[in-house]
Amino acid sequence: MNLLFVLLSLMIVSCSTTNKNVESIDNISNEDFKKTSYKKYVRSEDYYPDNYWDLDLKDDLLYSETLDRVSDQKVKKVVKLVEAKVDTTSQGQISKLAAFCHASSFDLASNHFDDLYRTYKKNPSYWNQVGTCYLKQGEIEKALIFYNKAKSLDKSYSPAINNIGVIYQLKGNYPKAKLAYEKAIKENSVSLTPVFNLAQILLKFGFTDNAIQYFKFLQNSNMRDVEVTAALASAYLLSGDLKNAKDEFERLNEAAFKIPFIGINYSITLKLLGQIGKSKAIFLMVETDQLKEDKEYYKNISQFLGVTNGFI
Q1: How far, in Å, CA of 60 to CA of 280, rounded?
Q2: Are the C-beta atoms of 60 and 222 separated by less than 8 Å?
Q3: What is the mean pLDDT of residues 30-54?
Q4: Residue 160 confidence (pLDDT)
Q5: CA nearest to 66, candidates 150, 192, 216, 187
Q6: Which of 28, 71, 115, 181 is deepest in the core (most CB within 10 A)?
Q7: How many other β-carbons are positioned within 10 Å of the β-carbon of residue 109?
Q8: What is the mean pLDDT of the chain?
Q9: Long-range contacts: 34-38, Cβ < 8 Å, 24+?
Q10: Out of 157-161, 180-184, 288-292, 297-301, least confident range
Q11: CA-to-CA distance for 199 and 213, rounded, in angstroms?
């Protein structure tokens, strides 16, 4: 992000009063003095455009939001980059750029962020998406700078508040993350992502009844989201409600059981219900190359189920 790296450095280092590269007056035109027409914030900019998602995901309300969410295991979604070049004069540019960032097309996104700077620099959604591009590259501190920039333009801007909560959670500051999600929900009651993030924190710390209510609300709003259904099922499992846990897991298709936290928790549910053979079969569907930090948990559950498949 050539222009954005310059902007970032200007926030940290004071400007020099000496300009050694003075542009020739011959290069100045009337266009340099033309008044810029700034693009105002439009809430629809915080949603991905429909044609950027696979057709079977177009009704997935939670995944239509460009806000970040934290989960034990991200469900991979495929973005269709149907446009190689964005027309920067039309509406919906921020949401299209968000799709580029989600697809890890960071160079493409960077070029278009530069193109949009003049007209969108007073738009909180613009700075929020710059932050999200950095966050998806693992540059948390830079992401935080731009989320705070978005918030400085509109202190009640829910997506930036939610995303700051995500950063707090990634850093292990769960109390501040919880407060951020609650504030994001208060500022925008129709946004679903902060609800999901808040429910995940409640579940992590054992407030299963509260988490279940939030997940049920999300499921009623959006029946097709795999992570919501799996999270609700896991919450039922942790609360000891095995029947409802099993019912929720069975809403999912077999492909979902390859995802570690889904397949493992479903196999535990089946084992506790006495369905030993099926629990082992589900467990063996888990793709072990996705485990990462869950390897020890996987081995412990393998022993609990009496499964040996050669994974170390």
Answers
A1: 31
A2: yes
A3: 50
A4: 92
A5: 192
A6: 181
A7: 25
A8: 76
A9: 36/118, 36/119, 37/119, 38/119, 38/120, 38/121, 38/122, 38/123
A10: 288-292
A11: 9
